[in-house]
Design a protein that fits this description.
The chain is mostly helical. It has 3 domains: 36 residues, no CATH class; 61 residues, no CATH class; 112 residues, Cytochrome P450-Terp, domain 2 (Cytochrome p450-Terp, domain 2, Orthogonal Bundle), CATH 1.10.230.10. It is built from 12 helices and 3 strands, in the order H-E-E-E-H-H-H-H-H-H-H-H-H-H-H. Strands 1-2-3 form a 3-stranded antiparallel beta sheet, with no helix packed on it.
C-alpha cells in the first residue's frame, strides 16, 4: 500500500482490501512452484537454513547465524525443563493424563506461557527496561534513581526475582555459552549485571533472573523488545512435549491426584458412591 495515499476507513477500507493484500513478508505461488519470504525464495535461497536461522530471518528480516545459535541455546538452557510441576508443563501433562491430543495440550501450555508474572511477557518487559534505562543513563541519570523509580511505578523490576529460590541456576551456563561465542561483554548485558549488583547490596530482595540475562544478550544483538518476544513464544516446547508424552504413557487420570481427606471441606457431609461401570 502506498504510504503517501490516504488510507480509507470503515466500509471503504474493507472494500479496498477485498481480494487485495499488500505484503512485504511473503506469499506462496503454487503454480510457479515457489514461496517467497521477505523477498527470498524459501525453496531455493533459504532451503539450507537451519530452522532457527529461518525464524530469525522471518521475524527480524535479517540473517544472523550467530543470533539464531544464541536463541537456540536460550531455548535449551533456560526453558526446556521437563518437570510437570511447572505451571505450563502441568497444563500439557494434564492434557496427557486425560488423553487429549498433543497439539491441543502443547498449544494450551504455550498459551499460559504468556503469564505476566513469570512467562514470556517478563522477557519482553525486561528488554524494554534495559533499553529505557540505557537511554536515561546516557542522558546522565543515575542507575539507583532509575531502579527506585521503576519500583515506585511498577512495584517490580522485570527480569529480577524468582519464586522458590534466590539464585537462578541457568545464568551461569547461559553466560558460559555466550562467552564461547564471543558474546556476553556488551553494554546491555553489563547493565543487566550492574542492576543485579545494586539489588544485592540494597534493601530490595530481588535476584538476577534468567529473563534479564536473555534480555541483555538479545539487546546487545540489536533485537527489539517486540522481536525478542516473538523469538521466545514457543521456547517452552522442549519441556512441554516431554511432560505431555510422559503423562500420556502413565495410567489415565493419575497425574497428581488428591484424596478427599486433603480437602478442608466445611459444608454439609454427603456420602457418595462410585459406579464401577
Amino acid at each position: 500500500m502506498n504510504k503517501d495515499k490516504k488510507i480509507p476507513h470503515g466500509p471503504d477500507l474493507l472494500k479496498h482490501c477485498e481480494d487485495n493484500w499488500h505484503t512485504s513478508i511473503g506469499a506462496s505461488f503454487p503454480r510457479e512452484q515457489r514461496t517467497v519470504l521477505r523477498g527470498k525464495d524459501l525453496l531455493g535461497e533459504l532451503s539450507n537454513h537451519r530452522w532457527m536461522e529461518l525464524m530469525v530471518y522471518a521475524i527480524t528480516g535479517k540473517e544472523s547465524k550467530r543470533l539464531a545459535r544464541l536463541v537456540e541455546a536460550m531455548w535449551v538452557i533456560a526453558t526446556s525443563f521437563p518437570d510437570p510441576r511447572l505451571w505450563n508443563n502441568r497444563v500439557a501433562a494434564l492434557g496427557g493424563t486425560v488423553r487429549t491430543t498433543g497439539a491441543l495440550a502443547a498449544n494450551a501450555a504455550s498459551a499460559v506461557s504468556e503469564a505476566n508474572a513469570y512467562g514470556v511477557r517478563v522477557g519482553k518487559r525486561a528488554i524494554d527496561l534495559l533499553y529505557r534505562f540505557k537511554e536515561k543513563l546516557n542522558a546522565g541519570e543515575k542507575l539507583e534513581d532509575l531502579i527506585k523509580q521503576e519500583f515506585k511505578q511498577y512495584r517490580v523490576l522485570s527480569g529480577y526475582g524468582r519464586p522458590l529460590v534466590s539464585k537462578d541456576e541457568r545464568v551461569e551456563p547461559l553466560m558460559k555459552f555466550a562467552k564461547s561465542m564471543g558474546l556476553g561483554d556488551g553494554p546491555f548485558i553489563k547493565l543487566t549485571f550492574d542492576i543485579s549488583e545494586y539489588l544485592s547490596n540494597s534493601r530490595y530482595r530481588y535476584q538476577l533472573n534468567i529473563s534479564a540475562v536473555m534480555a541483555g544478550l538479545l539487546a546487545d544483538e540489536g533485537v527489539s523488545a517486540e522481536n525478542a518476544y516473538y523469538l521466545v513464544i514457543n521456547c517452552f516446547l522442549g519441556g512441554i512435549l516431554p511432560c505431555y508424552i510422559d503423562a500420556k504413557n502413565h495410567p489415565e487420570g493419575t497425574l497428581f491426584p488428591l484424596s478427599t481427606t486433603r480437602i478442608n471441606y466445611t459444608g454439609q457431609h454427603t456420602t457418595r458412591s462410585w459406579d464401577p461401570t
